[in-house]
Amino acid sequence: MTELVKGKVTKSTIYFCPECGSASLTMRGTAFVEDGQSLAKFSCNVCNWSGGRQDVAAMDVSHEMGSDEEMVRTLITDLKNLLAQKTGVYFAHFLTKWGFLNGTNKSNNTLLLAKYLAVISRKIIEALLLERAEIEKKRINDERKS
Questions:
Q1: For residues 4-19, average pLDDT
Q2: Which terminal residue of the chain has fewer beta carbons within 10 Å of its beta carbon, N or C?
Q3: pLDDT value at position 78?
């Protein structure tokens, strides 16, 4: 869905479910027929709608955040840096107390702490993204009931 272009600007297309308006769609297949029409199939992760590319609303956007994968990596790195700066010492004490770090090998502990903070950051971001998807599902379902 994204394509890196000149100057670190990424052009993306955001697709929206025609049934509920959610952007939480899964796309399967990217084949194109001779006239340029996409054969991709979409399914909505919120309302379970499914259909073809011709059925979904699409909005082209440009941004300087890189690909979807780069955006997630940057998000994780930003959180890891925040945790290291603001709570690194506390995590080190906690991890030492519970035996994840060895109190005598400081150089190895630094590497291990960095690894633990990276894993913690990745899992927090995963949990945030999953929770955000659930919040969107609930919001759309609540709107449908109204």
A1: 73
A2: C
A3: 92
**Same domain, yes or no, for 44 and 111?**
no
The pLDDT tens digits of the residues spanning 64-84 come to 777 778 888 888 999 999 999
- Judgement on whether residues 39 and 72 belong to the same structural domain of the protein: no
20 within 8 A of 45, measured Cβ to Cβ: no
Phi first, then psi: what are they for 100, rounded to 5°? -80, -25
108-146 per-position pLDDT tens digit: 899 999 999 999 999 999 999 889 888 988 988 888 887
Task: Please state the domain count of the chain.
Answer: 2
Same domain, 37 and 72: no
Q: Do 29 and 96 lie in a common domain?
A: no
Q: Is the alpha carbon torsion for 101, 105, 110, 111 positive or negative? A: negative
The closest of 18, 24, 13 to 51, measured between CA atoms, is 18
Q: Which domain holds residue 72?
A: 68-145
Q: Phi-psi category of 83—alpha, beta or left, where left has phi over 0 and alpha has psi -120 to 50?
A: alpha
